[in-house]
Amino acid sequence: MTDTTMRIGVIGGGAWGTALAQVAARDGSPARLWARESAVVDAINQTHENAPFLPGVPLSPLIAATGDLAAMAECDALMLVVPAQYLRAVLDAVLAAMPGRDVPLVLCAKGIEAGTGKLIAEVARDLAPAAPLAVLSGPTFAREVALGHPTAVTIASADTVLAKRLAQRLAMPMFRPYLSDDVVGAEIGGAVKNVLAIACGVVDGAGLGQNARAALIARGFAELTRFGLARGARAETLTGLSGLGDLVLTCSSIASRNYSLGVALGQGRAAADILAERTSVAEGASTAPVLAQAARGVGVAMPVVDAVCALLAGEPVRDVIEGLLARPIAAEFG
Predict the structure, then answer these.
(1) Which end of the chain is more exposed for a tag (fewer CB within 10 A), N or C?
(2) What is the pTM of this model?
(3) Residue % of the chain over a pLDDT of 90
């Protein structure tokens, strides 16, 4: 079997999982997609559209959806595209459905597990210590990927052979993977930028202007870098697609779930009310308090992240902003 015929399975039938299945099927190869919701499975198989999560996007007929995890056992690699806080339970169920197989796992969620403070790769390693692991991350809005708009991503793995095989399998003229062996850096960029996107949304929701948003992106990126380096990431990874690239995308568009959450917070709405009315997950809301705790654990100051935590906990927007701006004057670097 050649690399280009690697059978791809996607675990997770949301917008991003569906978009990745579309990428996997775009070269004429079949792709299998597992979804928890029977309505999603039926819609993809019958109408070739994921109406609940990616409406209006025609999907390849080569995508076969299923609600049976055992049906994923014939895949050569599994892309795990479920929210970070559900990954442990879903992966446990996946492994139970295919005992004895150490199929490569491609981690596509962005976040830090609440309760343990572990990155997604660490969670996967807990459950599947022998499985080859890779991380796929970068500036990717699901709808644009599914429609075939130009996109570049990072595929990071300590197993460079696996990373190359995945890149060869997924690469298309409009979907360009870049390779890395810095798994920690790729994960931290994706997790932290979600929290910073909430902060940028707050700036716009509160009408604080574009100067403030630019300053917040720069200072937020400084926080991301400090934390990443403290956790063993490489600086060049953090300035790449999975770090700065993803940060720029999600901090500047209402299409970002985290940014739009921040806009609503900046307008004075309560976080609980905003999240309760959504069907999609804003990972930054779950990641923020875990990230703040993890930063304290390694002695890294992240005042923007702390401010997001305060807003999510219900503190008034004006009070949080005034507190952030009243911090002592300090050197920009060092």
Answers:
(1) C
(2) 0.95
(3) 93
